Fold:
Amino acid sequence: MTAIYTPKFKPYAHQEEALRRLKGKQAFALLMEMRTGKSKTTLDDWGRLELEGKVDRLAIIAPGGVYRTWETACNEHLSDDLRQRAKISTWRSGAGATHKRELDFFLSPACEGPKIFLMNIEALSSVQAARDAIIAFLEGGSAMTAIDEVTCIKTPSAKRAKFVIDEIAPRSDYRRILSGLIAPKSPLDVYIPFEFLDRSILGFRSFFGFRARFAIMRPMVVGGRAIQTVVDFRDLDELQARIAPHSYRVRLEDCYDLPEKIYMRRDVTMTPEQERAYKEMRTYATTQLSTGEHVTATVVIAQIIRLHQILCGHAVDENGIEHELPENRTAALLEVLEEYDGKAIIWCSYDKDIHKVVDALRKVYGEDAAARFWGGNRSTRETEEQTFLQSPSCRFMVATPAAGGRGRTWTNASLTIYYSSTPDLEHRSQSEERTQGVGKAQASAYIDLMVPGTVEEKFIALLRKKINLSSTINGDNYREWLI
Structure:
């Protein structure tokens, strides 16, 4: 009698349907919007195949801000039996000798049992050691490879896309792509993801043949030479018909059995300039507090806020002059939004963040894409709010919790992103409620952008637990925050 894989938690109805459609498929696209459970569905799918003896390893490839969150997903969603047996390794670029030894053992035949390897797609663009490691992992057994937020490989000419197609796909017995929005900017974006799955799905030998079939091209003179430019698309119903048997689309509004609130995180890496400024500010705070003088909680919180500002990309010098620092946070925000096609609220703690986020959104999505609600636009913010509520082209509300956190009804949005979080519990609690409304059946998702291993991660954890930052810090435990 064949054993039956038992998920740790019972899937929701749409996840059960996804697993039903996955059964027996070597190549499949889970086109599930964020917070509908594509991570759980993927892990349950792999767990079922592992129990059937069809695979013994799983490679997860995802953008840098996402791939490490799969560590938590594995702990939460793998069955208890499989979690005990499975070995998990996470790629870390530039890691030391200890991690290299651990990775070498993980990749060796001496490490027995099911294995899961988590890797960021950026490493496959240029890091030879990462390429060697993923090839060794896939060649060591029967593997499933899942590419999360698959728009990260949509560019045919990119090194990462070529490597995935030429080296990873042929070594993967089962292939999955995960995305909330498979073609965020152009129908042509589907080519590389489905080429990874199975070339026969779309039925073209090259990207240029695919483009010639579905894009309308016109010559345009640029820099004195004529180039072919896409001006429109055609026969998209045919394209959809080719994809449909090999994919399952789930939108949030179709999932009425989900929890009312779903929390996620998106990791952000610091730039070298931020790392240097953060270390100096942290060291200064520790030195100052180590003098033996009496330290109040208020002073420690001020140090934490300055550290947080550095993480967001700006700092104030000793003369009170504010300076901008290079940062990766805005790029991480845009990556999140690439996978989403609805309306969203983006909360910012600082005025500088408002300007930076709005400028970035308008550059990518158009001048009318973002409304603002903050202290700097008191005379126009009510008008901008109405535009956000009524205009389909105005997709984003960018606001500060102090201004927009109370009394606003923005239930037309189901995604809330904390670009930078205030450490004020009341601000957090009130801002979370803006997407909630009487009779609203649709779930709301909350994503925190954060730099792991910093004060930001600590105080977001407190806010999630409904604990005030100020009540946790005293003269005895300040080192836990600043070291």
Notes: The chain has a mean pLDDT of 85.
